[in-house]
Design a protein that fits this description.
Length: 294
């Protein structure tokens, strides 16, 4: 599948999930679509046929309210059936509002913001141990390269002090198989981030903690791929700071705080949002499945 086509399909799933009985966190899910597509279709070493593969890369959704985007990505990548997306938040469904570990590809139940990076520290450390390294000196040889952990955070989430405690620990551990991807869409539940508690410049803060840091357009799939490739070669923990737009791809809601949580509970609302979805842009084809790194 083409990357842009996958992103379009993920957005369509998200809109349909918001038409369910509970509605959903549309804005922060849409802003993260290209990030998730780049990770799951291009960058991460994973196998949908074997979700528990021991050498797999691990993804942690720290901004757990964007679970719709993760479920939709997992459906398009083959971890769960596409038709299961229609069960989001329905009685008996395993697709809960926040990530549910009963879903293949969901590694942790998250949603209480600020804890995902600490969890990612733990998995990245375990991956280095499994590859024969130690906390302070990860083993990186052509024969034994540790799997990587990727964690997606939101910019409002960076107001949590636990994020920076974990960032300091990761640098002290020289966690060269850990990549933090930050979705900077400018909004949180109660309004614009700069008005609630301005943490700018985001990239400067990560760099200040000693992380290799790059800033990128979070909707540019080619640029995202290059940034993630560079992060894998960083020689220490890396942060990819993604400038995004809240509710990206939904013309009637883009860049609006009101898109944070949406319930498309009438045919008119659903038709309006579906009709405003942008068409997919052309992009390169994806990579394959499991690559067997390490």
């Amino acid at each position: 599948m083409q990357l842009a086509a996958a992103a379009r399909a993920v957005r369509e799933h998200i809109v349909d999930m918001c038409a369910g009985p509970e509605g959903g966190h549309l804005g922060g899910s849409m802003s993260a679509v290209e990030i998730l597509v780049a990770l799951f279709f291009r960058t991460m070493d994973i196998d949908p046929a074997d979700p528990e593969w021991k050498q797999r890369d691990i993804f942690v959704l720290s901004k757990g309210h964007a679970a719709m985007a993760l479920y939709a990505t997992l459906a398009e990548r083959g971890f769960i059936p596409r038709e299961e997306v229609a069960t989001f938040c329905r009685p008996g469904s395993r697709l809960a509002t926040h990530g549910n570990v009963a879903v293949p590809g969901v590694e942790f139940a998250t949603g209480s913001l600020g804890h995902g990076l600490a969890l990612a520290n733990g998995t990245a450390w375990a991956q280095r141990q499994a590859a024969g390294g130690s906390a302070g000196a990860p083993a990186r040889t052509p024969e034994r390269t540790p799997a990587r952990t990727y964690v997606l955070l939101g910019d409002g989430e960076l107001q949590e002090g636990t994020v920076w405690e974990a960032a300091q620990v990761a640098r002290a551990m020289d966690a060269d198989n850990l990549v933090a991807v930050v979705d900077v869409n400018g909004f949180q539940q109660t309004g614009a981030v700069r008005e609630v508690s301005d943490g700018a410049p985001v990239a400067g803060r990560w760099a200040g903690f000693g992380w290799h840091t790059v800033e990128v357009d979070g909707h540019d799939l080619a640029a995202l791929g290059e940034a993630l490739d560079g992060a894998a070669r960083a020689g220490g923990p890396a942060a990819v700071v993604c400038r995004t737009v809240k509710a990206r791809g939904v013309g009637v809601l883009e860049g609006r705080s009101a898109s944070h949580f949406v319930r498309l509970d009438t045919e008119r609302k659903l038709a309006r949002v579906r009709g405003s979805l942008r068409p997919a842009a052309a992009t390169a084809a994806t990579g394959g499945g499991r690559t067997g790194r390490g």
